[in-house]
Amino acid sequence: MGSAPVVQVQNLSVLRDGLLAVDGVSFTLAPETDTALVGPNGAGKSTLVAALLGLLPRSGGSVRILGQELGPDGELPRSVRSQIAYLPQTLALQGRFPLTVSEFVGFGFDRPGLNLAWLGGGSRSRRQAIQQALQRTGCGDLGEHLLSELSGGQLKRVLLAFCVVRPRRLLVLDEAQAGLDVPSTEQFHQLLLELRRQEGWTVLQVSHDLEMVRRSCDQVLCLNRCLRCSGPPDHALSPERLLELYGPNVVPYRHQHHHASGERP
Amino acid sequence: MTDLTAIQAVLAEPFMQRALTGGLLTGGLGGLLGSFAVLRQLSFFSDALGHSALLGISLGILLGINPTLVLIPFAVLFALLVNQLVSRSGLPADALLNIVYSSSLAFAVVALSLVETYRGGIQQLLFGDILGISWPDLAVIAVLLVAATAYLALSLRAQVLLTLNSDLSGAFGVGASRHRLAFIVLLAVVVAVSIKAVGVLLISAFVVIPACAGRLVSRHFPVYALVSAGLGGGCALLGLLGSGLTNLPSGPCVVIVQFAGFLLALMVSQLTRRPRATAGPAGGRIPDAGPASPGSA
């Protein structure tokens, strides 16, 4: 049971606006691993993640999460759904939004379905979990702030608190590091490591930070509509593979070896 | 003293008692639903619904069916149609709603012009007649208020998450499309039921103004929804009382009081915001938690 894959994706295809945005992708996520999904803009990374979570209909293939088949309309048993956390790129906050950080994180603690768990701030264990999640993500002093008062980086950390307020098995991150400052990025990775090693989480993250991917991920999936390559970072992020994935103009690793000052047009 | 006796005289009238109860309930209901609608950028939706309701009423009159009976199914059908249109056309919602809003108004006026006998009642349709509200009307509004409160309270997590990010809500097990649809249908029914009292032109004020006022002064979500509902009900009560005392039209009186409430909320928010703004998003100190160290760490 311990080593059964957390996610199994087979031959997954997704149509968007009549075009095949994801084409026959297969991979598995082993427990307690950190997998990066990389690829150029428009490669279908977010689409793949959305289809995997059941947020977009798929045109072919199958997805199993924690041994359960994802239904055609994204259905998963509630017990499996509550084991999944997802950190989106951003929130639709336009103008003042009368919701405090603590209230928001509390909704991450509550189970899906109709309930009144929020009433009066909730049970003692709920309030403790909120406080703990805020502390772990470096948001201990933000609890009473409005969500709409936060900076981009603070919002990312609060979203992470929302994800970790309850123990889960799978964490899916869509460009989570974008907008974080250096100490926050470090803290972020430390927390991911802790979640995996000590609490058995499995992580799948869309990322453009190949340096970070090389340092902290176990597996890399290179996507450009279809899976171009996959494997450990050393293999998947070799200069040849990157050239193949991103094309000759952008090879994010090259500047380490050669043009440190960058090219001018 | 004369004022007090005038108020007592007004309050003694059964039609006025019905009107005040109706105003309180309708205003509260509008404020409650509005608190969610405003955050979900559905303000204009309620306006478009109001105008489409006029089309529903006109069709009812044209076909010889009691307009009140036509109104609820028509509004629900209309809301579902607009919902589909917005989600499928790929056009911005405000532009689409404008198209729907102006064309339904045009059709309604054409339909009404075909009915010679109803021309006199147009004023009532446009501005409502809260004084003509009956006890059965009140019962329907009360039931709606209870149902809406229960549904929104029980699904608060879903409502908030899907407002913030539909992917986030979906990933965390919220049936976003189901709840979105349920809310829009609820809003349509509330608009349809309130039209009789408030009128086609001012119905959106009942949804938008108290909620915006509440949004300015609240920090916690449940407080926000309650303040919006309270403001909605309170302003309706005051406006109707004023209307009863001065013989001015009731709907506009309520909206003027709502507007005054909004200005007050704006002032309050400006006065209370200043210390918070200096704390800034850079985030060392939070005003609510006092000076840096002793807090929660």
Q: What do you see in this structure?
A:
The complex is a heterodimer of chains A (265) and B (297). Chain A is an alpha/beta fold. Chain A has helices at 45-52, 78-81, 101-109, 124-136, 152-164, 182-199, 210-216, 233-236, 239-246, 254-257; strands at 7-16, 19-29, 34-38, 60-65, 68-69, 84-87, 170-174, 202-206, 219-224, 226-231. In chain A, the strands form 2 sheets. A 6-stranded mixed β-sheet of chain A has the order 6-7-8-3-9-10, with helices on both faces. In chain A, β1 and β2 (19-29) form a beta hairpin. Residues 253-265 of chain A have low confidence and may be disordered. Chain B has 297 residues and is mainly alpha-helical. Chain B has helices spanning 2-12, 14-39, 43-63, 67-89, 93-113, 122-127, 135-154, 156-164, 166-171, 176-198, 203-217, 221-246, 250-279. In chain B, α2 crosses α11 (203-217) and α3 runs antiparallel to α11 (203-217). Residues 276-297 of chain B have low confidence and may be disordered. Classes of the chains: A alpha/beta (265), B mainly alpha (297). Chains A and B meet through β6 and α3 of A and α8, α9, α11 and α12 of B.
Quick rundown:
The complex is a heterodimer of chains A (265) and B (297). Chain A has 265 residues and is of the alpha/beta class.
Beta strands of chain B, count: 0
Oligomeric category: heterodimer
Mean pLDDT of chain B: 84
| Sheet with most strands of chain A | 6 strands, mixed
In sequence order, what are the helices and strands of chain A, one letter per element? EEEHEEHEHHHEHEHEEHHH
**Straight-line distance between termini of chain B:** 58 Å
Strand order of the largest sheet of chain A: 6-7-8-3-9-10
Structural class of chain B: mainly alpha
Low-confidence stretches of chain A: 253-265
Global Rg of chain A: 19 Å
Spans of chain B of at least 5 consecutive residues whose pLDDT stays below 50 are 276-297
Classify the beta-strand content of chain A into a percent band.
Answer: 15-25%
What is the helix tally of chain A? 10
Computed structural class of chain A: alpha/beta
Shape of chain B: globular
Put simply, the count of helices of chain B is 13
Give the helix level of chain A as a range of percent: 25-40%
